[in-house]
């Protein structure tokens, strides 16, 4: 074992051998399962280091042991904080420095993870409210996949609305499967059935619900479809995750409704986080 490998966190010492030494101070975890949804999207689960703690909704930096200086990218942990494994939902960018390789991982392979989670899409960044809206586009559903599986979400809010808008129907598969599995869950299935509302829509392929989330907020159809009143600072809390354009536009609508942005150090009525840069 190289000197660098010997400095690993104790959880990572039995990680599979790599051509390159595992950098000091990062977890080296094993891939447990991989599921491909489209030629652009997949999810994978890895072992969870025993000492790794995070808050549902946070992100970590992950990489591959395929270079002396691995490329790390931000990834929302899609599994809830109580889960024994860690789940990630990922894009495949054809020439992407990380995902051109990451999309090829198989069970038993090694994924590197920096030990410090962070992020604003956490309960602590929101003041109490009645209803929480989780507004996602594309892979922006990942942090919400964590939060809707966390019992604390149901303790803190009476109603949870998850909206997921993608270009095509196939891109909704991960969210659809996730919600269906949660409704069948023997422990919280009943709770989810009555308290979680899931609104899945497309913008470029015909599906039962079409249109950008911004259009549906502005024309009121989002609220009418659920039988609820438009955003109200006394009632609603909003979490937003998507492209920078989507964040800018949804944020403007939420602010127009009178909600004030929060952060972990200064909780508020809505929070935003980029699903990717560029
Ligand atoms: C806070 C934060 C959390 C993130 N969480 C996730 C996550 O949970 N899952 C995930 O797949 N990515 C996530 N990302 C994006 C991720 O960090 C990488 O950009 C992505 O894995 C691609 O890496 P790459 O090195 O292959 O290409 P990069 O060089 O990083 O990206 C190349 C280009 O691909 C496009 N792109 C990158 N990521 C995405 C994406 N997720 N969806 C659509 N287009 C994209 C952009 O146009 C970007 O300029 C997150 C980013 C941030 C800032
Ligand atoms: N999805 C694909 O099939 C595909 C294929 C190849 C490459 N790419 C590239 O990958 C990158 C990300 O694509 P993506 O589909 O994951 O994410 P995206 O472009 O952010 O689109 C995801 C969803 O967000 C909607 N959206 C975009 N901007 C918005 C805004 N300002 N307000 C409200 N809704 C908004 C889109 O609607 P609209 O459809 O109306 O934009 C779409 O439904 C892009 O650079 C894209 O060119 C995507």
Explain this structure.
The protein has 278 residues and is of the alpha/beta class. The protein folds into 2 domains: 3-113, Translation factors (Elongation Factor Tu (Ef-tu), domain 3, Beta Barrel), CATH 2.40.30.10; 123-274, 3-Layer(aba) Sandwich (Rossmann fold), CATH 3.40.50. It is built from 9 helices and 11 strands. The strands form 2 sheets. It has a 6-stranded antiparallel β-sheet with strand order 4-3-6-1-2-5, with no helix packed on it. It has a 5-stranded parallel β-sheet with strand order 9-8-7-10-11, with helices on both faces. The radius of gyration is 19 Å and the shape is globular. It starts with a helix and ends with a strand. Mean pLDDT is 93; it is low at 1-16. NADP nicotinamide-adenine-dinucleotide phosphate is lined by residues 40, 137-138, 165-168, 203-204, 212-214, 242-243, 245-246, 249.
Keywords:
278 residues; alpha/beta; Elongation Factor Tu (Ef-tu), domain 3; Rossmann fold; six-stranded antiparallel sheet; five-stranded parallel sheet; globular; disordered N terminus; binds flavin-adenine dinucleotide; binds NADP nicotinamide-adenine-dinucleotide phosphate
Q: Kindly report the name of the CATH homologous superfamily of the largest domain.
A: Nucleotide-binding domain of ferredoxin-NADP reductase (FNR) module
Distance between the termini: 39 Å
Strand content: 25-35%
- CATH class group of the largest domain: Alpha Beta
The proportion of residues forming helix, as a percent range, comes to: 10-25%
Hetero groups: flavin-adenine dinucleotide, NADP nicotinamide-adenine-dinucleotide phosphate
């Amino acid at each position: 074992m190289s000197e660098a490998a010997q400095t690993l966190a104790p959880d990572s010492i039995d990680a599979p051998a790599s051509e390159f030494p595992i950098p000091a101070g990062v977890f080296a975890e094993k891939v447990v399962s991989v599921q491909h949804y489209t030629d652009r999207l997949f999810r994978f689960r890895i072992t969870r280091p025993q000492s790794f703690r995070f808050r549902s909704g946070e992100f970590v930096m992950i990489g591959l042991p395929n270079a002396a200086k691995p490329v790390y990218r931000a990834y929302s942990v899609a599994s809830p904080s109580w889960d024994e494994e860690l789940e990630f939902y990922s894009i495949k960018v054809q020439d992407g420095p990380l995902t051109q390789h990451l999309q090829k991982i198989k069970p038993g392979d090694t994924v590197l993870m920096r030990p410090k989670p962070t992020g604003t899409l956490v309960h602590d960044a929101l003041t109490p409210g009645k209803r929480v809206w989780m507004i996602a586009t594309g892979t922006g559903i990942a942090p919400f996949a964590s939060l809707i599986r966390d019992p604390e979400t149901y303790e803190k809010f009476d109603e949870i609305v998850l909206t997921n808008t993608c270009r095509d129907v196939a891109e909704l598969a991960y969210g659809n499967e996730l919600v269906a599995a949660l409704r069948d869950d023997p422990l919280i299935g009943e709770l989810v059935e009555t308290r979680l509302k899931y609104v899945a829509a497309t913008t470029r392929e015909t599906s039962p619900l079409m249109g950008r989330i911004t259009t549906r907020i502005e024309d009121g159809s989002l609220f009418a479809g659920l039988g609820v009143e438009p955003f109200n600072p006394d009632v609603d809390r909003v979490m937003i995750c998507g492209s920078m354009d989507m964040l800018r536009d949804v944020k403007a609508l939420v602010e127009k409704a009178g909600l004030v942005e929060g952060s972990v150090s200064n909780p508020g009525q809505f929070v935003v986080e980029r699903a990717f840069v560029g």
